[in-house]
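Lecture notes, unit on protein representations.

Consider one protein chain, 337 amino acids long.
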Amino acid sequence: MSNESDQNIIPSHKFQCESLAQVQYIRISRDDEGQRLDNFLIRHLKKVPKSRIYNLLRRSEVRINKSRKKAEYKLQTNDILRLPPVRVESKPKSCTDEAANEAFAARLKEWVIYEDNKLLVINKPPSLAVHGGSGIHLGLIELIRRHFQHAKNWELVHRLDRETSGLIMIAKRRSELRRLHQAFRDNTVHKEYWAILVGDLKQDKHRVTAPLKKNQLAGGARIVRVDPTGQDAETLFEVQGRTPGYTWVLAKPVTGRTHQIRVHSQSLGSPILGDDKYTDQSDNAKAKKAGYSGLMLHARRLTIPMDDKPNLILTAAPPTNMAKWLENKHNVDPQTF
């Protein structure tokens, strides 16, 4: 690699982005193997805007083993990553307000469903994005990293839409992240959701296999449609209860496409109540007037394979909007949540 000696190459597990005033070379360690190049850069270059990172990749200023690589390139052990000089923010964004830290820690403690030295599982409230992005400065993972110094390398294992509530996994170690990603590929992680659908599903069970394709509207909003040229997708629906004009279902996504449950339920003619993208706004307005606002989709149960242990099975109570619906419409005792 170039003219650099090994002593100037930093192992990726020791790399800290304190300054990018000069070219740096990083040797990819085993713990970072399999990670996308863009995700690795975003994780380590926290002071660099994402737009700048993707600009560096498009202009081929970031090299792997002296070669150009795309953002989706999967890092390999002993790859040599070359980082060019990059201007970074002079002041790191960190929270030093002790009262704010304590307040967030108290809220997070209420959300925790399971925790060990490798994994954290929380019951995410609705309206909280899992990560920052378009128009969102801080999401769940950024808030955790910002308030807890020991959590700076924690990573989301999977994602939930901003308005979807329920169980989400956060890996505390890179090895655990890799293990769980492999479990998803092996289809040994199982997710189950509760949803309130608009309309009356006649059958008790439905299997939807409509392929899904992402589209972008003129205003830049992301939307997903059923499309024969899209990605394969499969969702199982099981009716849990019925009330006039609505159906309470258990949804089991076999695949993990963007907005999968939301679009598959729409394809049945029964979109999810409160969905501002896929449900008629008059239906949402009617529910809101009756005191039920927000997306009625909740990640209720997770089955997680564990090393040398029985599967970990976790459940999370629904948020206020859905709990109120189930109690009033289906006579479900809140104590059973």
